[in-house]
Amino acid sequence: VGVSRYGLDNIVRCYQQDAEGLIWFLKRHDLGCFNPRTGESRTIDLQTPLSGKHVLHRFAIFGTKFFIGTSPGGLYVYELSSPSSARRIKEVGQLVTDVSLSQDDFICVATDGSGGYLIDPQTEQVVERYNMDASGMHRLPTNALHCFNRDANAINWFGLVRCGLAYGRHICYLLNPYKP
To answer: Count of CB atoms within 10 A of residue 59's CB?
Structure first.
């Protein structure tokens, strides 16, 4: 898909299958779609809807909404029904490293520099934030996250840059324990 001399623009950074069986994928500035039933593919240029040349990293699909993590532009919500624009979730930091849909239907966002965010995809509002400045179950040893996921038991899992792995409703550390 999209083979050209400009290899960096055609690196597929993330892909997912939606409820209808379509395969969606991100390239550097584009959202692509491949239909396995017909063999057809299409590409949606996201530079204009996202207001700039943000590099696309990861995304999660919730219904017809695409939660797209960019660098250095932050997190955007793009809907197929309004292809000319996307909304930025301003509370989320600018260097998004991971975006995923949890098993209990929340959007989990990891950033390099401002921690992690749990977002309600219906309202597009931040429900919880995890970072170094927080207290209790929201406190992390670093704001540099590589990934953030939440399992079916509502247990959060954080891949921390240089600090190992943290998990739980009350944060516990694996691999490289954090000692305050």
So the answer is: 27
Q: Tell me the pairing of strands 164-167 and 172-174.
A: antiparallel
- Which of 76, 91, 75, 97 is closest to 144 using CA atoms? 97
Segment 57-77 mean pLDDT: 94
Matching residue, tokens 């509370």: 91
- Lowest average pLDDT, out of 23-27, 108-112, 148-152, 162-166, goes to 162-166
Q: Cα separation of 57 and 68, whole Å?
A: 7
Beta bridge partners of 74: 70
Q: Are 70 and 57 in contact (CB under 8 A)?
A: yes
pLDDT digits (tens, 9 = 90+) for 37-51: 999 999 998 988 887
175: confidence class by pLDDT, cuts 50, 70, 90: low
